[in-house]
Each structure stands twice: as structure tokens, then as C-alpha cells.
Amino acid sequence: MDIRTYFPRHPLLRQYISYYYFLVVDDPDFNVTYYSFPNTTTPLNIHKNIETKIEPYATSIAESKEQNNVMLVQGMRKQPLLANLKGRLDKITIHFKPLGLNQFISKPFADIAPLDSQLFTDWCHAPGYNHFIADFYGTCDLERRVGILEAFLLSIYKPMIIDPLLINAVNALADTSNEQNIQQIAQELGISTKTLSRFFTKHLGITAIGFKNIARFRHSLQVNQQGKTLTDIGYESNFCDQAYFINVYKQIAGASPGAFFKSISKFADDQLVFKLLDQGTV
């Protein structure tokens, strides 16, 4: 798959967005099936002229003769998502940092993305949305598209007042270099573990421990690039023992760590990790 990666230009957007990637396919026979894996980022996809079928942990996208624009957003999922892409496609995916999308929506995150994958309509009635889509898909220049997208995002930016305690908790749980359990973090913030759990469920759509395991999982992918043993990878990613390391991987990745690392492919400057099942005309 020819995936092109771009990083936010505007300093405000860099606070909330990790990166964008484009997938533009002009081959009607294109057909690829793959698994994508849980991440601490929130992917939001904007597609041109597609039909889609969404099932639990399985989403298919196919070229459509209907002239439309479809947006999909993925919640903070705990299991791999099976994806199938067919035909000519033209999409951008925005990877929002934790709490990032919250700054650009009109409802709580838990209301916007309660499922692993769903249609996203929150922007459809925003002032300038139709003009944005027309301009965005009116050019094939990806650099220009990034500029058009960022102008739209800045126009709908509504900074959400989030309790600083939640932000501190998110940062603490994502920091694998300073291992702390949920109870320690809640105690340091002066709140109960129940309050901490409510924060995460409302604003991130996942429990605190679920988020922490995903952060450990994503860190282990980075450590694996350094050619270390499975024992070292588990230890450096703060999995308390090998049995727990394996159990979390079987849930999040659907395989043991050793089998998983042998099966994955990386795209978008190693930002994306997929397990390709049917490469078709990739």
C-alpha cells in the first residue's frame, strides 16, 4: 500500500494530532485485508465515494459509484480490527493524540465513539464543512490538502475544559519509563480510583488499566525495532512478568508476542503496524 505520511504544521494542531496519512488508490482491482491494532491515538478517516459495512471489530470499505464523503472514527478498542479495502480509494486518516479529538467535537468522546468503529457525523453541520470537503477533494496535491484540512480544523477548534488531573493521569499512564499502578496515580492526584476510571471512560472511552496496557503494547513495538529479546521487550515495556506480557498480547494483538512480531508489516514511516492477510494488488 502506498501510504503517505504528513505531520501537523500548525503549532496548535501539533498539540492534539500525531500525524496524518493519505491512501490514494487508482486501481479498481485493489483488494487488501489486514488487521490493525489498538493504539493510544484516535484515528478519524475521511473517505471519498465509498460504501462501508461496519461490524464488531470488522470494517469493510469499497469503491462506490455514489458521489459521497464518509467519515469513520475508531474508538479506543481493546482488540484487533479486521479491515478490508477494495477498489479505487481516496482517504485521509487523522491520528489524534489522547484527548485530541475532544478539542474538535461538540459532544463527549464516549458519545461520539462508543464502539470500536462507527460513522462520524459531528462535523457535517459545522460552518464551512461542505466548502472544506469541496476544496479538499478539488485538488490532488497532498501538500495543499494538508493546508486545507488544517484551516478547517482551526475553524472548528473549541478547546475543551478538561480537569488537569485527567491530563496528568493520561501522561502518567502513557509514560512507560516511570511505572506506576492505577492506585498510585490516583493517590498522587488526590482522587479515588473510581473517579479516575470515570474520567477515562468519559473522555477516552476506555478504563485506565485498559489504556495503560495499550500504552505498554505500543511501547513494546518501538522496543522491538531495536532487536531485543522478548524478555527484554516485556521488561522494558513494564509488563510485570512474561505470563502477563503474553496474555495482554493475546488480547490486544490476537497472538503471542513472538508470533505477532513475525507477522506484522509497517507503513507510514513505521507509524502504522498492520498484519496483512490478503495482499491482493498491494
Automatic annotation (TrEMBL):
<protein>
    <submittedName>
        <fullName>Helix-turn-helix domain-containing protein</fullName>
    </submittedName>
</protein>
<keyword id="KW-0238">DNA-binding</keyword>
<feature type="domain" description="HTH araC/xylS-type">
    <location>
        <begin position="175"/>
        <end position="263"/>
    </location>
</feature>
<dbReference type="InterPro" id="IPR018060">
    <property type="entry name" value="HTH_AraC"/>
</dbReference>
<dbReference type="Pfam" id="PF20240">
    <property type="entry name" value="DUF6597"/>
</dbReference>
<dbReference type="InterPro" id="IPR046532">
    <property type="entry name" value="DUF6597"/>
</dbReference>
<dbReference type="Pfam" id="PF12833">
    <property type="entry name" value="HTH_18"/>
</dbReference>
